[in-house]
Every structure is written in structure tokens, then in C-alpha cells.
Protein 1
Amino acid sequence: MTNNMLKTQLTAEESAKLIELGVSPERASESNSSVAYGNGARGIMKVPETPIFTLADILDILPKEIEDYHLSIESFKETHYTTYIRDNYDDYLIPHKDAPELIDALYSLLVWCLEKWHVKLN
């Protein structure tokens, strides 16, 4: 039996990477918090919330166009492909970013955009 559930959130580590690259934590629509138990005087300590970015957050942050290239998202069989392509489909700005989960392909593309300064963070 296969799991047809769509992954809709990044991991805490992936979300932290986006924040490290300059994305505001306020742009994350989810958060993770946990409780740590210890033997100290207080016994229970709540760990600060970790911002978690969702599929919708990533789509909101990604530029829809970079110069003459537009965002392209395609799926074939069980793989999702993302890139920036010209309207005539003969020229790519970057190689495809691909992954079995759409959010992972989009995350790779967003990291590339952030590292190349193609995202306006204001």
C-alpha cells in the first residue's frame, strides 16, 4: 500500500535554513513547539516555538518571474519538477529541481533563488 499523502510542511531544519537565508520567520504560517521535562527546580520547560514553512508559504515567497523566465511546476509519474523557463520553452534559467514531494522540489528552487538574490525579502 502506498502513502498518497501530500507533504505540506518543511522540517524544522529546512525552515531554519530559509530563515538563515533571510526569510522572515513571520512568513511561516505554522509553528512547532515542544515541552522538555527535566529534573530542575521548574520541572517542565516549554521550548520556544519553531517557525515551520508550508507549501503555500513557499509558493507565496517564490518569485513568479525572474527577468524573462517564469516559474514552471510540472509533475510526471511520481516526480515533481520546478524551474524557471522562457515562454517559448527552449531556454531554462537553471536546471530543474526535482523531488518525489512537490514541497521538496519547491524548497530546493527557493534555496537557489535566495542564494542568487532573486527573492525580494521586504
Protein 2
Amino acid sequence: MIRLYKSPTAILNNLHEIREGTYNTARCFQADCDDLMTFNQALSAANLSTKQRRILYMYYIEELNQSEIAYILETSQPNVSMILSRGVRAIKQVYKNWERKELNECT
């Protein structure tokens, strides 16, 4: 399949560096800005719950591990893992829908 967007997983993995500007300068600043804006739109379109957003923030921005998040939120690590996975899956689905729509418009 043709990829029109950078993988949301790759963006999530580099989100802290992109936001802090501490990333490798070999990467393109403009492309990172575009990726971040697109990601923020996908985040809104994914209709995540407050808890999903909070866990995504704690995991990818604050760089806490799942056990630390579970302790803070007074829940179990498997529950944090499930919520995190569902949140990432919802964001990925937004990207897939956008790509499908854009590819259909091209044909």
C-alpha cells in the first residue's frame, strides 16, 4: 500500500523529541512540523476519551512506563496497556481512513 503519511507509531515514538526540538538535525524540521500538525488533527479526529489522551500523554510525552502510569492512575498495568493500545489503534485508523479517501479521490 502507498503511504501518504508518516506512520502514526513513528510520530508517537518521536513526539517528545519533535515537541522539544531535541531531535537529530538531519531530519527535516518542516516535515516534522507537518507531521505534528497532521498528528494533532488525527488525535482530534480519533475521538479519544480523556483517559486515553492522558495515558498517551504520560507514556509518549512524559515518558513514563506503563507500571508508573498504572500506579499514578491507581489501576493495573494490563489496563494501561489495553487503553494505550486502543488509543494508538484509533489514531492509526484515522490515518488509514484519510489515506483510503485520498487514494480514492486520485482514481
Protein 3
Amino acid sequence: MNSRNDQLYDLLINIFGSEARIAKAFGVERAAHWKRKVPERVALLCHLSPDIPYQYNPTTYQRDMKGLRLVLEKPTTNNEVTTNDQTIHLQAA
């Protein structure tokens, strides 16, 4: 068993409260079997969520880092809305 995966499972239980709620949140039938290994797609979704303090590690899933172009830093929440439309910037000035 991978201790990092156990930590993710425990984290999900703490956040969602039960296996049934975890399953509902991720659109799966059962989350009970995740005690051994949380599915990689769920780990990636957890990494992308600002509400779940988890950072995806490709080696947990035996992924070769050479072929992946992932930003492994946890995304931060930023309430500022940005745009690349220069006309909006000029009108605001």
C-alpha cells in the first residue's frame, strides 16, 4: 500500500464525511475500494481543486515524468478576473 494514497483517501473522508459522499462527488458507484488506491483520475481532480489540499505525484501511479507536461504546483485561488482583450483595458484607463 502506498502511504501517500492512504493520506489522500483519509483526506477525502475528512472533507466529504463518508464513502457515499465521496462517490457522489466524483460520480462513481463506490469509494470503499479506494482504501488501497485512490484512482488516478480522482487524484488529478483533487490536485486541480482549490478546496482539496492535495498535490498530485506522478510516481505514485508509476508515471514516467519525461512524457508528462504537468504543472505540479497546486493551483491557488485568485479572485481577480483577467482578460487579454486590450480594448477593455484601454476603456478602463
